[in-house]
Amino acid sequence: MVPAQKFTFQYSRVEDRLKMLINYDSAATRVDFFVTRAMLLQLIPVIEQMFIKASSSLPQPVVEKTGNLHVNLHRPASVEHATDTTTLALLASSEILLLEKVVFAWQAHEKQIRLDLYAKGVLQSQAHLNGEQFAAVMHAMMQVVPHSSWGVAPNILEI
Description:
This protein has four helices and ten strands; from the N terminus they run ββββαββαββββαα. 31% of the residues are buried. By secondary structure, the protein is of the alpha+beta class.
């Protein structure tokens, strides 16, 4: 299991799937996932519930739509727009895993959300996110969704 420190999102037109790259700049800890439209649609109601649990008034990160969106958990809810495309390609995982299951757990004592990402029936990566980090990651993911072709409203996570 790889601890998730950075989330990078891309949309792949060829596969018609989102790519979620965990720790994109570390060959030793990088995990690449494909997220299908069906999976995303299953996750949206749970994501909304986690927003409510984390805080009723999370700040909405301002994110411009670009080819690559990157959220670094080492900096408070930072969203970086200039992800190095060369690094994304050079350090690519040998295999892109199909995201099969996501488990969200609210940890009330720490006021954090634990995010467990599964592929091939195994926990592949885990993140512990405060409310701001969770909001930044989820909004970055939604920025790369092809909203019209996937039938997802661009502001679906605004609560």
